[in-house]
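#onboarding

Welcome to the new folks! Below is a worked example of what a typical request in this channel looks like: someone posts a single protein sequence, and someone else replies with the predicted structure as tokens. Don't worry about understanding the tokens yet, we'll cover that in week two.

Example request:
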Amino acid sequence: MVDDKAPLTAVVVDDEAPARSLLREYLGAHPDVRIVGECANGFDAVKTIGEVSPDVVFLDIQMPKLTGFEVLELLDPGPTVVFCTAYDEYALKAFEVHAVDYLLKPFGRERLAEALSRVRSRLAEARASGGSAASGSTAPASAAPQARALAASARPPGSYAERVLVKDGARVSVIPVEKVDYVEAQDDYVAIHVEGKTWLKNETLAELADELDPARFVRIHRSFVMNLERLARLELYAKDSRVAILHDGKQLPVSRAGYARLKELM
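Example response:
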């Protein structure tokens, strides 16, 4: 049964101050809704949402620094989300990451009230099922894979990721892909090696490799993807077995299939 009187905590994320102000005004007409955070960019949103665990996040999609989809990629578990954006091209995509609703700007008070009703219904259903009751989230345990896919689909056709996002606690690191030396598989994680430093990211090697420019990054082994610009030379290690020597002296194994891929690019 839906509890219409249960209070809701909300975080508002939008890079435009007038948009945040208008949403705050509209939400102010609902005494059971309490805004517990307001963010002007994706970095602040990741930190705030992680700290306050709101019942619902009103999230813009097109923002500088981090898009709304990239924000979701960094949140685990994913929050209950209502997207607020001026771009209808993302409507269907938004529901792929289990958004409760999608508010196309400019929207009015009635449309917001409708979205709040959907949020309450979803939260009540989730709590009744006991699935995500602790957090109040109606999203799956992790919406990161879908969010990554949608962030990729939001890029222009034929383009690839220009940066890799890594979350460590409340801190978000942005790694330009041109600085990546190589990436190493570590079970369900990847170790991203950059100028002697290593970042761990909860993503498979295949998933990350799909986001990288295949003209620059090549999978040389089932456990390694290498930045081709870092390759100094190849050496024969044993019959049908080679190692890649990087400019910093690091040695990486090269499988037979990896060698075939390298030859196509060299």
